[in-house]
Write a structure and sequence with these properties.
- The protein is an alpha/beta fold.
- Helices cover about 30% and strands about 25% of the residues.
- The chain has a single domain, classed as UDP-N-acetylmuramoyl-L-alanine:D-glutamate ligase (3-Layer(aba) Sandwich).
- The strands form two sheets. Strands 5-4-1-8-9-10-11-12-13 form a nine-stranded mixed beta sheet, sandwiched between helices. It has a four-stranded mixed beta sheet with strand order 3-2-6-7.
- Helix 1 packs across helix 7, helix 7 packs antiparallel against helix 8 and helix 8 crosses helix 9.
């Protein structure tokens, strides 16, 4: 078994453990017996409104595990925006750099969940008024944490944030699932690149998962590149070694996979900040993702330290 340390030196004397810059959303989750066929009708089991969005969810997850986080992002000046901001402040995430934009609508998603498996289909929209550009990137927040974590929806603004963070020896982490304009310039400033399983092939044109990660690493020099594999766990490339980690069974069955990738980043960054080996952090990441899937919503079932420790211990006991 490979045993590997993170090749990072965590900066000291920072106000926050992690600063998150990027997406928030309000989700409307609809649970159905099975995904409906085209031009059909189906009766739903139920629906809920819940807070989501990749970066906002990751900050909440880290906060629940006892870390200190800052969320930097934009909401609309609508009821959803009020709800989204309150969902963060209720979890003690610092929102001093969050703002509501006049006449903008908060990002929303309608999420259809197949009750048989918990797998979801997401239909979303982000108002263009919520976007940052390189001129208004809040760079004064970029290096106030040990880690800067973002999604590249506003790649030019992310580039400014990453440059500031790197100048101050802050570790830069990206959550990426699609090809956005400007990411070729952004990715050389990233230390930890964790993507969806289909992103590497879309970006570098190589189907083989390991070879696609090698290509990403060769192109941009990120110290860790990896992908989430759903129920099959994860695959990381670190110092030219692959670390394949199996997924965890969801306690009492999978109810909803919405936000599972965000939860994976929670566990990985938590392991990094707690000084764990890469392998242990990957196990934590998959465990947090499994626990998240216990209930509807991206954040509903994000675990506490006690819940995470219990699942990790049960896995070790059963080996």
């Amino acid at each position: 078994m490979i045993v590997m340390n993170f090749s990072f030196t965590l900066p000291e004397n920072r106000k926050f453990d992690v600063v998150g810059f990027g997406t928030n959303a309000v989700d409307y989750l609809i649970e159905v017996p099975e995904y409906p066929s085209f031009n059909s009708k189906i009766e739903l089991y139920g629906y809920i409104q819940a807070a989501g969005g990749e970066v906002a969810t990751t900050m909440v997850g880290l906060q629940r595990l006892g870390l200190k986080t800052l969320y930097v992002g934009r909401f609309g000046d609508d009821r959803e925006g009020d709800f989204g901001l309150r969902s963060l402040s209720d979890e003690a995430v610092d929102i001093s750099f969050a703002e509501q934009i006049k006449n903008a609508r908060t990002q929303i998603a309608f999420i259809v969940i197949d009750r048989r498996s918990g797998e979801r289909t997401v239909i979303w929209h982000r108002d263009k008024l919520l976007a940052y550009d390189e001129r208004d990137a809040p760079t004064e927040a970029a290096a106030s944490g040990k880690v800067l974590h973002f999604t590249p929806h506003d790649a030019r603004a992310c580039l400014q944030m990453a440059r500031k963070a790197k100048a101050e020896k802050t570790i830069v982490s990206i959550d990426i699932d699609n090809v956005f304009e400007g990411i070729e310039e952004l990715l050389p400033h990233v230390d930890i690149l964790i993507s969806s399983s289909d992103f590497p092939e879309k970006f570098v044109g190589i189907k083989d998962q390991k070879e696609s990660l090698r290509k990403l690493n060769a192109l941009f020099g990120c110290k860790i590149v990896g992908m989430t594999l759903g129920g099959n766990g994860s695959l990381l490339l670190c110092e030219n070694e692959f670390i394949k980690t199996e997924g965890f069974e969801v306690p009492n069955g999978c109810k909803d996979t919405t936000g599972a990738g965000d939860a994976f980043r929670v566990g990985l960054l938590y392991g990094l900040l707690k000084g764990e080996m890469v392998e242990t952090a990957a196990q934590m990441a998959n465990a947090v993702a499994a626990l998240k899937c216990r209930a509807l919503g991206a954040r509903t079932a994000l675990p506490t330290v006690v819940e995470l420790s219990k699942l990790l211990h049960s896995k070790q006991t059963n080996l």
